[in-house]
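seq:
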Amino acid sequence: MKQDHDTIDQGRRALLGAAAVGAAATVGFSSTIVSAEGRKTPVTAEHRWGMLIDTSKCADGCTACVDACELENGLNLQERPHGLSQQKWDDQRSTWIRKVRLQDNLSGQITQLPLMCQHCEKPPCVDVCPTGASFKRADGIVMVDRHICIGCRYCMMACPYKARSFIHEPVEHKFTRAPRGKGCVESCNLCAHRLDHGENNTACAEACAQTGHQAITFGDLNHANGKLRQALKATKNRQIREDLKLNTGVRYAGL
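struct:
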């Protein structure tokens, strides 16, 4: 009898192994794949990542930060479903950064405002999530675990910045570092995969610097002598919706 069980177990392992290979081949055929290797050490509270966005340096018509974010996280791989109007697709496609145009009614001054997840110290999205899919890392980055997100969209309703996107359509092409699928929510994660592999800048800040605008400064809010803290000391800045007392990781100058 033991020999029969051993034979069955060996056959089962062989079958599962073949299925895994087949699944990997299928994913490789239909998706854009990059390394899924994770970080080697635990995330700690030693750092709290954030950024300062100087709207006075943000150029009208420039989309460098948006374009870089889409390339970095595979958002540019989204495809408009057949039969869906361009306007509806533009309204519902996943976007992690959007440029908001503000105009002062008195002075007429126009401000370009890049808006994304603000990475709150006390994130409302985390408070309302029923599954724990919305969570905050020890280093202050607010993220979504798409594997346990049930698409209830409570987090989208709770977010005062409208920073999250719901995926309405099936997804065929994606990066393994940014998995996504129909029925889940996602948002800016401050390029956590970069930080986890030893890099010290986000794609949006890097792209903005390359244009020469230097409107985005990324860094560690816990590092008193770091570039972000120095920039915050040198420039008058504020949080969006300071009245909510969320202690956001993203701050703005020029508002």
